[in-house]
Design a protein that fits this description.
Strand order of the largest sheet: 6-7-8-3-9-10
Structural class: alpha/beta
Number of helices: 21
Oligomer: single chain
Largest sheet: 6 strands, mixed
Shape: elongated
């Protein structure tokens, strides 16, 4: 339960006023419950004519408060019987019981009313924290995590926390208050019987606690298996074209059914164990009531009981009002244990350290020139070194192309510049300042990216082009689209710039998607540009249009180009050939051809 209270300490403070009001109304409801049931004693005594005593009004201070209150209550009942008659007095007591119950249920409703914004607010805050953390985590984190599992944590695990921990919050705060208030009244009625009760309750609590711990372990297994299922679904949706092309529907269905059956078996074990909570608490509660009834009844029958029979009935009613909250509390503890398993998975993301941090005293570049330098840079993915001791100077305004075989380290070189990853050895500088000494937001604000896969969002042309650019006017957007050769097909669409382009731009051709991403980079107007194989997936006609747009975009900017199609980088100021993580050749197109080395072989292969 320490983990449960740690969650409350983290997320409850913004909602403490709702918690305070909830506790106040819970205390009020508990007190009203006791006083409403207290009316049962005189009703029973009147019905069975068990109390023939004559009461005289006692002023406050003439005896202890409890004795004065009880005496004066019976005095007024006695007066009412004398003037109104037993039947009318019984009706008045019944009406008072109804009124007290109405007040109690009203207080109970108000306690739940103030609990709702606390529960919903905590779930909202957890979901916001997870999304914020996912957005801020480095790209390297998601190379080792399944996207489907991350989606399962922000959806399924947060939903489980909402349905278990948050749904149990009311019981966790209400039931202990009811138990404490009832125990206090039981001690006031008979401390001897209460001492006997306090020996029984902890034994029942120990049994429930041991089963709850096992439930948490099984719940964690279930949530992990749910993450695998979500990953399977995410991969299936992403690769549906290949699945159908290779007639692999049976294979992926078989894999999903196998994993779903594992989840089915784990879910059954969890549900059965959770279903055990109510019968077990019912059995333990009834056993405790039966033992107390036997013990107290024996004392009354023997004449040695410190309380009367009506008081004992009232005592048993109070005790029964402890058993029900205790049963609900045990069920709540089961739910909490199940939710804590999900919270462990949520915390794995929330507690993940982000290695890409802003420096304590960041430097600023007021007027960026755009000179870039890689100085003895090395980088590895795990134990696999992909960049080894590379040095490269890119003058401001120059266009530098990186070419080479797949896996030679081209894209990694580009990713080190905006700090998608941090170098392990050496350093990368912009205008002579190490990129790690700049704020990440400022550094990336200097750069624009156009990738091989145009990453677009399920939104309008306008919102995709203005993505990441504040307060852009329609005139600026149209101008950027014209430079990117995109204005014509946008205008020809159904709603012009307000047309929705579908999931990841699925309503557009590859060349159109690429030109939208170029328009986005043009609108941002960055001094440094990174082009990662921006034309490699296009047909010749689309490539020509995109290349024209890129040529306009690259004017007067420092540009780092990664290219497989060597025809697109003939005019680069410097071409660097990477091989197994090292720069093995550098120079202009003509100079490298004269060398007759790696670059010439690449050109000849593409010519063939």
């Amino acid at each position: 339960m320490n983990q449960f209270f740690a969650i409350l300490r983290r997320y409850v403070p913004p909602y403490k006023k709702y918690l305070i009001l909830n506790v106040v109304f819970n205390v009020l409801a508990a007190i009203l419950t006791l006083f409403s049931f207290m009316l049962v004693i005189p009703i029973l005594e009147m019905l069975f004519k068990m109390n023939e005593a004559v009461y005289v009004f006692m002023p406050l201070g003439s005896a202890d408060l409890k004795e004065v209150c009880i005496n004066n209550f019976y005095y007024y009942v006695q007066e009412s019987i004398e003037y109104l008659g037993p039947s009318s007095t019984l009706a008045l007591l019944g009406a008072a019981l109804v009124i007290m119950t109405a007040l109690k249920t009203g207080a109970t409703y108000m306690s739940m009313y103030f609990m709702v914004p606390l529960r919903s607010g905590i779930v909202r805050d957890i979901r916001n924290s997870m999304y914020d953390k996912i957005v801020r985590l480095p790209i390297g984190f998601f190379t080792s995590e399944r996207k489907g599992d991350v989606m399962a944590r922000i959806s399924g695990d947060v939903a489980e926390v909402e349905n278990s921990i948050m749904a149990s919050l009311d019981m966790v705060f209400k039931n202990p208050i009811m138990i404490i208030v009832c125990l206090a009244m039981m001690i006031a009625v008979s401390w001897q019987l209460t001492l006997f009760v306090l020996v029984l309750l902890p034994l029942a609590g120990m049994v429930m606690g041991r089963v709850g711990k096992r439930l948490k372990r099984k719940s964690l297994e279930g949530q992990q298996q749910w993450g695998l299922l979500m990953s399977n679904i995410e991969e299936t949706l992403g690769g549906l074209r290949i699945i159908k092309a290779f007639n692999a529907e049976h294979k992926v269905c078989e894999r999903f059914h196998r994993e779903n059956n594992v989840f089915y078996r784990i879910s059954n074990r969890i549900a059965r164990r959770q279903s055990l909570a109510h019968p077990m608490s019912e059995l333990l509660g009834t056993t405790a009531i039966a033992i107390v009834l036997w013990f107290g009844g024996t004392l009354i029958l023997s004449g040695s009981s410190p309380i009367s029979a009506p008081e004992f009935i009232y005592y048993m009613i109070i005790f029964y009002n402890i058993i029900n909250p205790a049963k609900d509390l045990s069920k709540a503890m089961y739910s909490v244990q199940k939710g804590l398993a999900s919270m462990v998975r949520i915390d794995k993301i929330l507690s993940t350290d982000n290695p890409i941090k802003d420096p304590e005293k960041p430097e600023r570049i007021e007027q960026l020139q755009g000179a870039i330098s890689y100085q003895n840079v090395s980088f590895s993915y795990g134990n696999n070194e992909v960049i080894h001791d590379v040095s490269l100077d890119i003058p401001a305004g120059a266009t530098v192309a990186l070419v080479g075989q797949s896996g030679s380290g081209k894209s990694t070189m580009a990713d080190l510049l905006p700090r998608f990853y941090d170098v392990e050895k050496g350093r990368v500088t912009v205008d002579g300042i190490d990129v790690r000494d700049l704020k990440v937001h400022d550094l990336r604000g200097f750069m624009g990216n156009v990738n091989q896969e145009a990453i677009l969002f399920n939104d309008s042309f306008y919102n995709n082009i203005t993505f990441g650019v504040e307060n852009a006017t329609m005139e600026q957007v149209i101008e950027a689209a014209k430079i990117a050769n995109a204005h014509e097909f946008i205008e020809a669409s159904e709603d012009g710039y307000d047309t929705n382009i579908g999931d990841r731009g699925c309503k557009l051709s590859g060349g159109q998607r690429q030109r939208i991403s170029i328009a986005r980079a043009i609108l941002k107007n960055p001094p440094i540009l990174i082009l990662d194989e921006a034309t490699s997936a296009l047909d010749s006609q689309s490539e020509k249009l995109v290349q024209q747009a890129l040529d306009r975009l690259m004017e007067n900017r420092t540009t780092l180009v990664i290219a497989h199609r060597l025809s697109t980088i003939k005019n680069a100021d410097i071409i660097c050939v990477l091989h197994e993580g090292r720069i093995v050749e550098r120079g202009t197109h003509d100079e490298l051809l004269k060398l007759g080395g790696y670059y010439k072989r690449l050109v000849e292969m593409q010519s063939m």
